[in-house]
Structures are given as C-alpha cells and as structure tokens.
Design a protein that fits this description.
Elements lengths: L16 E5 L2 E4 L15 H16 L5 E9 L7 E11 L3 E10 L2 E11 L39 H4 E7 L7 E7 L11 H9 L2 H4 L8 E5 L1 E6 L8 E9 L4 E10 L2 E14 L1
Antiparallel strand pairs: 1-2, 2-4, 3-6, 3-10, 4-5, 5-6, 7-8, 8-11, 9-13, 10-13, 11-12, 12-13
C-alpha cells in the first residue's frame, strides 16, 4: 500500500471537479491517472460527461441510462473542462443524446447515450439466468487493495476505495469493488451511473495480462450497458482481457452492485511493443 504521509496538503474540501458555471468544470488532482502527472484517468471525465447527459435526459422524464459510449480522442489534461450536450432524438420511451468534452477548444471525448423511461414490469418466476448472478465476494469479504500506481501525489487511487473480490490487479482476470471516497462534483452526491462510469474504465488495467514495461495496451473507447439502475455506493468490475496477435484486443467487465449483475463494460484495445 502506498504511503500517503508525504503527500502535499489538499486545500479545502476534496472533489474530482468544481463547477465554474457555464458547463465548465475545474479538475482537481484527484483525477490524476497513471500515465502522465498532468493527465486525468479517463474514468472521472467520462463520469463528468454522464453527469451532464443525465441532467439533459431527466428534463424529459428519462431516468435510466441504458448505454453510454465514450470515444477517447485525446488525453484529458488536469485543467478546466467544458461539457456540451446535444439532444439527438427523444421519443415516448427512449432518448438519444450526445456530448463532447473540451479543454482549450480541443475535443477530448465524444460520447453518445441511450436513456429509457422507467416503469415497473412484473417478471414471471423461473426465467433462465434469474435470479441474476452475484459478484464473486461482497465488499465486506474483500480485502482493501490500492492501485499499484498509487504514489506520493493525489490521484485516482485516492478518489476511489478498491477491494479485491477475486484475483490480483494487473495480473490477469480479476474482480475489484470500487467506492468513491469523494464527490465527482463539489457539493453534489454522485449518481449511481456516475459511480459506474468512474470505475468502468479501469477494466483494462485491473485485468492486464501484458507487462507494462514491455507493451502498451491502451483503450480508445469505453461502452457501458446497464440492464437496471445500480443500487448503493459499491460497484464491482469482474474484468478480463483478450488479445490478438495483430495489435488489437478487448477488455470486458461484468458489472455488479451488492444486489447482483447490473450490466457490462467493454474497451477496444490498441496493443504494441514499447
């Protein structure tokens, strides 16, 4: 576990972002990822995009985020991020929305989302695959395990608490519980969907099967499909990585809350030797 005692003091309350008005948000050091000290982990900005999309959909009474696809165009700097949302089509039961995240006028993330209207539907007993499966272990039965890239600066490993439900991080298939230690946006409680988005981009890392010192395996997108609204603070990724010998790969994660399966996340990988 990383020693936090030498970290610089953090001024004021801690959150991933502070709203500046006009759909602009200032990123804090809690968004810092493992690849560059001035770049964000992709999870927080994808969750910020979800935050903006959810607000647009809820204006139409659409509260369930069924799918979110984020195309990662450029590394996201730890800077002021603007999020613009567009309403593509809204029908009686579903709505399609898109969004773009920018910094200094450059597009960083392009996203599309499908929202659905919620209603109670009685399901018959004995359906195949039901009741839905549970995560390998509960959060309480899973030991605390910080990300191996945690260091003496504030970053993503401080934004989230992680617990090992199965396997080992960065050593093949593994299952990890995530819980946010701090708000996504200052003064606001993160939604269930934002909690999922913060965690889901980590599937490629926690299930890595190549050595970081010899290979690069970068995801340029993330798609999250959810069959229902998550419940509670904990999100579990049961992740694994599949690679081809032609420079491509796929990381896929089964997503759980404490009540059981909630959906899946996939990431397209670009693989090469260093």
């Amino acid at each position: 576990m990383a020693d936090n005692s030498q970290k610089p003091a953090f001024d004021g309350d801690m959150a991933a972002y502070t709203a500046l008005g006009g759909a602009v948000y200032r990123a804090s050091a809690l968004t810092r990822g493992p690849w560059h000290p001035q770049q964000q982990h992709a999870g927080p900005p994808i969750a910020l995009v979800s935050h903006a999309l959810e607000a647009a959909a809820q204006a139409h009474g659409l509260h369930h985020l069924a799918r979110l696809t984020a195309n990662l165009l450029r590394p996201v700097p730890i800077a002021d991020i603007e999020v613009r949302v567009q309403e593509d089509y809204v029908g009686r039961n579903a709505g399609h929305f898109s969004a773009v995240a920018l910094a200094d006028g450059k597009e960083l993330i392009r996203a599309t989302a499908l929202f659905q209207r919620e209603d109670e539907v009685g399901l018959p007993d004995g359906l195949p695959g039901h009741p839905l499966p549970l995560a390998p272990k509960t959060p309480e039965a899973s030991p605390v395990q910080r990300f191996p890239f945690a260091h003496h600066e504030w970053g993503y490993p401080d934004l989230v608490e992680t617990r090992m439900a199965q396997g080992r991080m960065f050593a093949g298939p593994s299952a990890v519980w995530f819980r946010m230690n701090h708000p996504l946006v200052m003064g606001q409680t993160p939604s269930a969907y934002q909690r999922v988005a913060v965690a889901a981009d980590s599937g490629n890392g926690i299930s890595a099967i190549l050595d970081l010192s010899t290979h690069v395996f970068v995801n340029s997108d993330l798609t999250i499909n959810l069959l229902r609204k998550p419940v509670g603070e904990w999100v579990c990724l049961d992740a694994r990585t599949h690679l081809s010998s032609h420079g491509g790969g796929l990381a896929e994660s089964a997503l759980y809350d404490e009540q059981g399966l909630i959906g899946r996340a996939t990431q397209s990988l670009f693989v090469r030797r260093r």
